[in-house]
UniProtKB/TrEMBL annotation:
The organism's taxonomic lineage, starting at the top: Bacteria, Bacillati, Bacillota, Bacilli, Bacillales
Family classification: Belongs to the UPF0166 family.
Protein name from the UniProt record: Uncharacterized protein
InterPro entries referenced in this protein's UniProt entry, alphabetically: N-reg_PII-like_a/b, N-reg_PII/ATP_PRibTrfase_C, UPF0166
Pfam families: DUF190 (PF02641)
Organism whose genome encodes this protein: Kyrpidia spormannii
Length: 111
């Protein structure tokens, strides 16, 4: 049986070079999500991208220091996502994020 529930998907965009209090932004966001009680988080590393600055960032085999785009994604109940967003206010986080309403579909097996 399929169960569908309304959820929010939060995506936070940053780069590998971004830092919050000297620590990698993506790591801080993931740790904060766990401590806030989010159901889960996924970190995507892009091979190439550009943002508002217009600077194109791409993967180079011999490059030792990278600034590739990252996306940290969460899907959870609206109240949990909103609580998480409120905790970001306490950080010196500057970034771009999106919020979308999604249907979370869970297969619970035959009944």
């Amino acid at each position: 049986m399929w169960d569908a529930e309304s959820r929010l998907r939060l995506r936070i965009y940053c780069t590998e070079r971004d830092r919050i209090h000297g620590r990698p932004t993506a790591r801080v966001l993931m740790e904060l999500a766990r401590s806030t009680g989010l159901a889960g988080a996924t970190l995507y590393r892009a091979l190439e991208g550009f943002g508002r600055s217009g600077v194109q960032r791409s993967w180079r085999y011999f490059e030792t220091e990278s600034a590739l785009p990252l996306i940290v994604e969460f899907v959870d109940e609206e109240s949990v996502i909103r609580r998480y967003l409120n905790t970001l206010d306490h950080l010196s986080f500057q970034g771009f994020l999106t919020i979308e309403r999604v249907e979370q579909i869970t297969w619970s097996g035959p009944r």
